[in-house]
Amino acid sequence: MAKLILQIFSISVLYSLVAFPATGEEDHIFGKSINDKSMRLKREKLSHFRFYWHDVLSGSKPTSMIIIPPPRNTTTGFGQMNMIDNALTLGPELSSKIVGRAQGFYAAASLNDVGLMMVMNFAFIEGKYNGSTFTILGRNPVFEKVREMAVIGGSGLFRFARGYVQASTHSLDFKTGDATVQYDAYVLHY
Ligand SMILES: *[C@@H]1O[C@H](CO)[C@@H](O)[C@H](O)[C@H]1NC(C)=O
Ligand SMILES: *[C@@H]1O[C@H](CO)[C@@H](O)[C@H](O)[C@H]1NC(C)=O
Questions:
Q1: Residue whose CA lies nearest to ligand 2 atom number 12
Q2: So which residues are the signal peptide here (predicted)?
Q3: Which has fewest Cβ within 10 Å: 30, 75, 81, 121?
């Protein structure tokens, strides 16, 4: 028994020498709790944002492109995937002031209706929010009047963000697929 323990000990000593050859690995700390005061966080607040999301598939400068066509001929387009870099504007017109861009993708993830899975970073350029982002992940049944999706995090002024968005279609061109959608975002952040 003692011999076995000694053997295991010497193997593990040998292994640790091989795995961490004299780099002083013990000096590095992977995780520890810190005082939240050291982060200088302000009071958490709730903000509301309204802007319009433009999914432009037509014309010479589309911002939404099919990157994976539906693998089967279905009425719901199951499996289709679009990559987007869509303008977010203050008013419903595409020519209105741009406050940010929606970058990410959406995919037809519902077999029996048109239900998209949305994965987007909203990257803002407006005022003090310039450079800050928050991230949307959620289910978007596009023919429902109001669709709710989660805000799951963010960066800059939106660190620790959580909340939700409500999306409602402002206009939709069935011929081209171009759509303008009003987004109301309710975000808790510091
Ligand atoms: C897809 O299915 C529809 C309805 O069954 C049919 O009219 C159409 O030709 C099909 N398209 C392709 C590309 O198979
Ligand atoms: C946003 O910030 C970038 C980088 O600091 C700057 O170049 C740009 O002019 C700013 N945009 C606006 C609209 O303020």
A1: 125
A2: 1-24
A3: 30
